[in-house]
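Troubleshooting: if your tokenizer reports a length mismatch, compare your output against this known-good record of 202 residues.
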Amino acid sequence: MAVKNTPGERVNELCKTYSITRETLAERSGLDIELIRRIVEEGHIPDLAPLIKISRALGVRLGTLMDDHEELGPVITRSKEAETTTRFVTGLPEAGAGNSGKPSGTSVRRGLNFKALAADKGGRHMEPFIVDIEAEAIQEKSTHEGEEFIHVLSGKLSLEYGKDTSVLNAGDSVYYDSIVPHRLLSADKNPVRILAVIYTPV
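Known-good structure output:
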């Protein structure tokens, strides 16, 4: 049973509401059905790309899978609150993972910690996060619909975008199309903190 308020619980509720089976969701999203089972039954939190594919397959925005409740007016997130609003951690387990997302060996994930900045804002089209990238982050390249804006708050960021790699320092920013395979890593094996704004079309 998925933990309350996890993306898995929301996916399960939406599938019941729309009478969509896991097999149909897997077919529409192009994801392995075992990964969907782990998300729904075990509360597994995958990388952003699978969540975006699931939201598209269900006809909802990405935020629908992560919101606790919706606020129509302005949503203010205080600095101390941001530190406690981690929504998910991406990255591969240290021993690697297969295409289905099932970990082989240890399941300790070393990657990116996403802290939502507007989780309660209803009807939003952007997803702003503070993202802490661990020094030894391990993750595969991601590709999904939409656009991303990144501003480096501290540390040295390595952006792999297609076949190119760029290094960004604190104060630097970048805006790119998410459909091109990309990933974010530490450029010098030290922690990195960024502001990330993700836009996905409805």
